[in-house]
Design brief:
The chain is α+β, with helices and mostly antiparallel strands. It has two domains: 110 residues, Gcn5-related N-acetyltransferase (GNAT) (Aminopeptidase), CATH 3.40.630; 91 residues, no CATH class. 39% of the residues lie in helices and 19% in strands. The protein is built from nine helices and seven strands. It has a four-stranded mixed β-sheet. Strand 1 and strand 2 form a beta hairpin. It is globular and about 55 Å long. The C terminus is likely disordered.
């Protein structure tokens, strides 16, 4: 089920759309949050916390700091005392920090994903392209059945909750034994999606935070 975002803000130059920022409702849990906020009910979270999920800037404006400007202005319009932002690219392009947000925590890839990525690399996969199902599927088609079986086995050996969730998305908690059975007979299509999930887990995540009553820095224009 798709959930509508709580707020969407856009930045325009005349009639031209330059950038968009999306605030969905906050999830019940998120890595890094407990370092800055006490445990809250969903009602409290919806009242006090906004989450930035997407910041989209028109390509021709990406080199002039528009992302930072967009985040900075949207922070003031969020309508909540706290704003959080999980990000992958933040460590390479700190536009959110320039806008006044503070980097709180960094989430490294789990050991299961690292172990799987090592095997995939040995089989000739480009680790940087694991999030591309088209690339992964094409690579799988070039492997022998023995190599495909090696991939199935490494997913079984390095079981992670996100992999189980792929097979049993309708269940709050999947069964590890059932996951093993599904993984060992996974088709190339299903394996390509599992590898995509692994690629996502391989990305270092960053948790950024902003407090209306205690802004850390001024906007760096």
């Amino acid at each position: 089920m798709l959930v509508a975002p709580s707020r969407i803000f856009s930045l325009k130059r005349g009639s031209e759309l330059c950038g968009v920022i999306v605030y969905p409702y906050p999830p019940p849990t998120r890595f890094g949050r407990r370092l800055v906020l006490p445990k809250m009910s969903m009602k409290e979270l919806n009242e006090k916390v906004s989450t930035i999920s997407r910041v989209v800037v028109h390509p021709k404006y990406r080199t002039i700091g528009l992302g930072s400007k967009l985040v900075h202005e949207a922070l003031q319009l969020a309508g909540t005392p706290y704003v959080e932002m999980p990000a992958v690219m933040a460590k390479y392009n700190p536009f959110a920090e320039k806008a006044g947000m503070r980097k709180i925590a960094e989430q490294r890839p789990p050991k299961e994903a690292l172990a799987i990525a090592e095997v995939l690399q040995q089989l000739g996969f480009n680790i940087q392209l694991l999030s591309s199902e088209k690339y992964v599927y094409g690579k799988l088609q070039s492997l022998s059945e023995a190599e495909i079986q090696t991939i199935r086995e490494v997913f079984v050996k390095n079981c992670h909750a996100r992999f189980i969730k792929y097979f049993f998305y309708h269940m709050p908690f999947g069964k590890k034994q059932a996951y093993t059975e599904e993984a060992m007979k996974a088709s190339l299509e299903r394996l390509s999606h599992l590898i995509k999930v692994c690629g996502f887990l391989m990305q270092t995540k960053i948790y950024l935070f902003w407090n209306l009553n205690n802004p850390q820095i001024r906007h760096n224009k």
